[in-house]
Specification:
single chain, alpha/beta, D-Maltodextrin-Binding Protein, domain 2, 2 domains, 8-stranded mixed beta sheet, two-stranded parallel ribbon, 13 helices, Phosphate-bind_PstS
C-alpha cells in the first residue's frame, strides 16, 4: 500500500507538467552544497546547462523558509557546479527568521512562504539603498500536506472544521464521531491524537492558518496572518523536517508540512473533503488546480500572489503555499548583487525549473515565471 502510494506521488509529479498553472513543489534534496565539476566563471556544465554565471563570485548568505530548503539544495548544487568560486549558504530557519535577517541586512535574500507585510516592506527600506525596498519573487509552490501515523489506518479523510478542532485540541481521540462520520469504512482506534505544529515562525503555519480561517471560520478564530502557532495544546517541533520526523515516529500523530517531506518518509497523507464530488489528495497536480486561479496582487516589480483557499473545484487541493525569494528591487549590496542575480536567474529559468521535476517538482506557472524572469535582471 505504501509503495503504491509512493509510486503514485512520483507519477503525479511528472503528470503535473501537463497541467496549466503547475507549481514547483518542495522535494527531497541533498544537504551536500559543495561544488563539484565546476567550470570556469561564465561557462556552463552539462549538469546545469542553463546556468549563466556572469560576474558571480564569493559567498552569498540567505535564510528563511524550510519549505523550500530541499529546492534550494538542488539549485545550489547545480549552480555551484557550474560557477567556480561561488558559495550559496542558505539557512532554513523559517520564513519569519529569514525576513528578520533580511530586514536587518544580514542576508542577501530571504525565502518566505508568505508575501511581505506592509510593515516588513517599510523595514526593508532601511537596508535597501537608493530608495529601494523588498519585493516578492515567487519561485516555489505546492501543497501543504497533512501527514499522520495511525496503526491500522491507511487512508483518512478530514474536512476543514474537523482539522481545525484537531489542531485546537477540541477533538482528542481518533475515533471521535466527527472523524468516524468522514471515514465510515475505517476502523478507527481509541487512540489519543498527538497534533504537532511548528515551534518557529513559519509561512507554512500562516498558509494553514489562512486555509482554516477561510474554510472553517466558526472553528478557527486565530489570526490568519500570523506566522506563529496560536492554537491551544499540541506539541511543537522546529521546521517542516522536525514536524515530519515527529509524526513519522509516533503512533496517533498528525502534523502539517510540505508534500516532499511526506514522500521522503513514505508517509500517508490526509485527503481533504472540500465539498467537491470526492475528497482531494495532496499531489502536485491537485495543488496546481487550486493555484491556477491565483492573482497577482503586488504592484510594479512585486509579484505577491493572492491564493484561493476556499476552492471547491473538482480535484483542487486547497491547502497550498507559494514560497517567495525576497530581495531589494534597488540598493542591493554591490559585492553580492551579481551572484544574487545569477543564482535567481538560474532558479527561475527553464533549466532551473526542469531539474526539479524528477524530485517530485513541477514548473511554476508559465505566466508567473515569465514575469519573474523579466524582473530579476533589473535588480540593482
Amino acid at each position: 500500500m505504501k509503495l503504491q502510494r509512493k509510486n503514485r506521488l512520483r507519477a503525479t509529479a511528472l503528470g503535473a507538467l501537463a497541467v496549466s498553472g503547475a507549481l514547483v513543489l518542495t522535494a527531497c534534496g541533498s544537504d551536500d552544497n559543495s561544488s563539484g565539476g565546476a567550470s570556469g566563471s561564465g561557462e556552463k556544465s552539462t549538469a546545469a546547462s542553463d546556468v549563466k554565471c556572469d560576474d558571480a563570485k564569493g559567498q552569498i548568505l540567505a535564510a528563511g523558509s524550510s519549505a523550500q530548503k530541499n529546492a534550494m539544495d538542488i539549485w545550489v548544487k547545480e549552480f555551484q557546479a557550474a560557477c567556480a568560486g561561488v558559495e550559496i549558504n542558505y539557512q532554513p530557519i523559517g520564513s519569519g527568521g529569514g525576513i528578520t535577517k533580511f530586514t536587518q541586512g544580514q542576508v542577501a535574500f530571504a525565502g518566505s512562504d508568505s508575501a511581505l507585510k506592509p510593515e516588513e516592506v517599510t523595514a526593508s527600506q532601511k537596508i535597501c539603498a537608493d530608495g529601494g525596498k523588498g519585493i516578492n519573487l515567487p519561485m516555489v509552490g505546492g501543497p501543504v500536506a497533512i501527514g499522520f501515523k495511525l496503526d491500522g489506518v491507511d487512508e483518512l479523510v478530514l474536512d476543514a472544521p474537523t482539522l481545525a478542532k484537531i489542531f485546537d485540541t477540541k477533538i482528542t481521540k481518533w475515533n471521535d464521531k466527527a472523524i468516524a462520520d468522514l471515514n465510515p469504512d475505517a476502523k478507527l482506534p481509541d487512540t489519543a491524537i498527538q497534533a504537532f505544529h511548528r515551534s518557529d515562525e513559519s509561512g507554512t503555519t500562516q498558509n494553514l492558518n489562512k486555509y482554516l480561517s477561510v474554510a472553517a471560520p466558526d472553528d478557527w478564530k486565530f489570526d490568519a496572518s500570523s506566522k506563529s502557532w496560536e492554537a491551544k495544546g499540541g506539541q511543537a517541533a522546529s521546521g517542516s523536517a522536525g514536524v515530519a520526523s515527529a509524526v513519522k515516529d509516533i503512533n496517533g500523530a498528525i502534523g502539517y508540512f510540505e508534500l516532499s517531506y511526506a514522500a521522503a518518509s513514505d508517509m500517508t497523507t490526509v485527503k481533504i473533503d472540500t465539498g467537491a464530488g470526492a475528497p482531494v489528495e495532496a499531489t502536485s497536480e491537485n495543488a496546481s488546480k487550486a493555484i491556477a486561479a491565483a492573482k497577482v496582487k503586488g504592484t510594479g516589480n512585486d509579484v505577491a500572489l493572492e491564493l484561493d483557499y476556499a476552492t471547491k473545484a473538482e480535484g483542487a487541493y486547497p491547502i497550498i503555499l507559494v514560497t517567495y525569494e525576497i530581495a531589494c528591487d534597488k540598493g542591493n549590496k554591490a559585492e553580492t548583487l551579481p551572484s544574487v542575480k545569477a543564482f535567481l536567474n538560474y532558479a527561475i529559468s527553464d533549466e532551473g525549473q526542469k531539474v526539479l521535476t524528477d524530485a517530485h517538482y513541477a514548473p511554476m506557472p508559465a505566466e508567473i515565471a515569465a514575469k519573474v524572469r523579466e524582473i530579476v535582471p533589473t535588480l540593482s
